[in-house]
Structure formats: structure tokens, C-alpha cells
Amino acid sequence: MNEQQQQTIVDTCKKQVPKGYMISGLPTSEEIASLIRMTAQGIDAHLEAINFEEKPAEYGRRCFVFDSKSMGVLCRRLAESAITESDDDVSRETDESLFRDILDTLELDPDEML
Questions:
Q1: Rounded CA separation 56/46 (Å)
Q2: Complete DSSP assignment for 5-68
Q3: Can you say whether the dihedral through the CA atoms of 35, 37, 41, 46 is positive or negative?
Q4: Overall pTM surpassing 0.90 (yes/no)
Q5: Which residues have C-beta within 8 Å of that of residue 18, sequence separation ≥ 6?
């Protein structure tokens, strides 16, 4: 994913979800594990970090809210993970699936971003 594509995600989030992009799931789900891996990296080689809030959720779910800039970073990290060779195929597949799901909800074409 290049910088222009990342900025497209940021701009789209600013328009569509100005109060933040919310992702929730069961604490044991692969998607939540993926989010925790992506956010735990701290500042990466691009000198970017992901800022998010964890909000209370119902029924034992975890709920994360990401600002627009952080969504660009999150999607870039998910895309990088999805195309990187790894021994952990489950994580790579989960990362790609989450990336595609996020872009679908933003009405962006994931195939153009990978």
C-alpha cells in the first residue's frame, strides 16, 4: 500500500466516520487478536503509530475505536501482513480478511489497495 492509498483511507474515514471507526468482537476472536497484534507494534518503520480507545461493549465483547489517521496506519499494517510470507497462515489470512472487511465498509476496493 502506498502513501496515496493510505491517505485515501484516512480521507474516507474523516468523511464517513468522523467520530471514529468502531470495531468490536469477542475477546477470543481471531480478528481481535489481529487488532491487538497490529496496535502492539507501537511506532513502526514509517514512524507511525495507531491510536485507539477501547470502549465498554455489551455481551463480553471488546470494542475499539480508531481515529481516521490510525485507520490508515492499521489498514497499511494489515495489508503488509497479508502479503508477507509467514509461517502463520491463520494470522495472515485473518489480517487480509479484516483488511478487506474494513475497506468494504468504507466502500473502497480492497484489490486496488493490495
A1: 31
A2: HHHHHHHHHHHH-TT-EEEEE-TTSHHHHHHHHHHHT-S-TTS----EEEE--STT-EEEEE-H
A3: negative
A4: yes
A5: 68
Triad 20, 95, 69: Cα angle to 5°: 30
How far apart are the C-alpha atoms of 109 and 63, rounded to whole Å?
A: 25
Query: Cβ atoms within 10 A of the Cβ of 4, count?
Result: 7
The mean pLDDT value for 71-100 works out to 89
All structural domains of the chain with their residue ranges:
3-113
The one-letter amino acid at 14: K
